[in-house]
Specification:
The structure is a single chain. About 20% of the residues lie in helices and about 30% in strands. The protein has about 425 residues and is α+β, with helices and mostly antiparallel strands. The protein has a four-stranded antiparallel sheet with strand order 1-2-3-4. A four-stranded antiparallel sheet has the order 5-6-7-8. It has a four-stranded antiparallel sheet with strand order 9-10-11-12, covered by helices on one side. Strand 9 and strand 10 form a beta hairpin.
Length: about 425
């Protein structure tokens, strides 16, 4: 991505004998207040000029340079104004950025109204979904579409900001975690702090998780659409976790690597195979305790619920099931894939549809039926809380509507043939 250079004022435009942070002379302020407002208007800036100064003039290039303050809560600017043409505006963040490490800024903002430009970035970042108290900020450059800045927060986190051109503190910006750029192939990098400092936040999160992890290694995993950030930590004892943090860097959720396979690709710092095998063995025991018989081969977790862990299970015989495991065990159950939809779940990891269990349900009410269930469809709930499931038969004869209760367990309570029930839609039932 091509970047325009940060403001470089020619030496001829700068007073040669002024100290590093000179006071603004009455003459410079008078000249600035006389001419800068028109330059602001020509540049299209959202600025009601409250103070201004003439920085200098480059008579050879026929350009003048001004600094303007725009009132409380608004970003100030350094303006590069050619004698003919549109002025270029640089925010005070950009203007205060040295052209190279160890060098002073070419034309820093000196007006008292522009004393703390980085403080304006905090509210802007919060509006974009990131809580940050900026401690350092620098300008990176401009493209036709964006102004790029880097910010370091009090928490140790760092961000690349994408703002408008010219930079307008009233317009929204994007805040992107510096960790996204550390290993990316891009010419935009975070330089105000190093990667190790940014990743040190993981140690604080691990302490908050209180899971006994003495952090050995750290990795940025990624971000979700809600602004949450995911980190991975490997532990000295061989275990590993993925942590979900909110936009303040505070811990929201913690996932053992054995349960994190579906979170942005899962763990990479920890060999999760042993943990996966161990966890599969645990689910086998939990399933057996809940009345199931699944020797678990693979598993996937549903979104967590308080006091309950819902898991899709793939058994070593190829069948599938849903494990609903309650804290303490009471009320836990294992549902085959045929009954799972009644409880609000759907099997997606195995080819087993649980049709054999639905056939068995039919025979409880229609002992002489020849129907072997070949397809099923969840119809919906009734006002009394029961659920209808439509089933089709392999012999192509009309199928049935089966009514289920879901509490205390999923079980059939009535069967009606499609010829009488109405509402059947599966092939062969219409």
């Amino acid at each position: 991505m091509a970047m325009l250079a940060i403001l470089m004022v020619p030496a001829s435009a700068m007073a040669k004998d002024k100290p590093p942070a000179p006071a603004v002379s009455a003459e410079a302020r008078k000249a600035g207040m006389a001419k800068a407002p028109a330059v602001v208007t020509a540049a299209g800036l959202p600025c009601q000029v409250s103070d201004a100064r003439l920085i200098g003039e480059d008579k050879k290039a026929k350009q003048s340079y001004y600094e303007v303050a725009c009132g409380a809560g608004m970003m100030g600017y350094v303006l590069q104004a050619p004698e003919a043409g549109t002025p270029t505006a640089y925010s005070c963040i950009e203007a205060n950025t040295p052209p190279a490490p160890g060098q002073p800024a070419s034309a820093p903002c000196l007006l008292s109204g522009n004393a703390e430009p980085k403080a304006l970035l905090g509210p802007m970042m919060k509006a974009s979904g990131v809580d940050c108290v900026p401690t350092q900020a620098r300008g990176i450059g401009q493209t036709k579409a964006n102004t790029y800045m880097e910010v370091v927060c009090q928490s140790g986190a760092g961000y690349i900001l994408l703002g408008s051109v010219p930079f307008d503190s009233a317009k929204p910006l994007q805040a992107q975690n510096c960790l996204m750029y550390d290993d990316a192939e891009t010419n935009i990098k975070c330089n105000l702090s190093d990667k190790a400092t940014r990743l040190a936040l993981i140690d604080k999160i691990a302490v908050a998780a209180n899971n006994g992890c003495a952090v050995k290694d750290r990795r940025f995993v990624g971000m979700s659409k809600d602004g949450s950030t995911y980190y991975e930590a490997s532990c000295q004892d061989g275990k590993g976790y993925i942590y979900k943090a909110d936009n303040t860097g505070a811990l929201k959720e913690s996932y053992e690597c054995a349960k994190a396979t579906q979170i942005l690709g899962g763990c990479e710092l920890t060999d999760a195979r042993a943990a996966l095998t161990e966890q599969a063995g645990l689910y086998t025991k939990l399933a057996k305790a809940a009345g199931g018989s699944c020797d678990v081969d693979k598993y996937a977790l549903f979104p967590p619920k308080p006091g309950e862990e819902d898991v899709e299970l793939v058994c070593k015989d190829g069948s599938g099931a849903i494990g609903v495991f309650k804290s303490g065990g009471k009320g836990s159950m294992v549902l085959d894939c045929g009954h799972a939809p009644v409880a609000g779940f759907k099997c997606s990891m195995s080819k087993d549809g649980g049709l054999g269990a639905l056939t068995a349900d039919l025979k409880k009410f229609k002992a002489d039926t020849t129907c072997v269930v070949s397809n099923s469809r969840l119809v919906g709930k009734t006002d009394k809380g029961t659920t209808y499931v439509e089933v089709a038969c392999a012999d192509k004869l009309k199928g049935y509507m089966v009514e289920y209760q879901s509490q205390p367990t999923v079980s059939p309570i009535a069967v009606t043939g499609c010829a009488l029930a109405g509402g059947c839609k599966l092939p062969g039932n219409i």
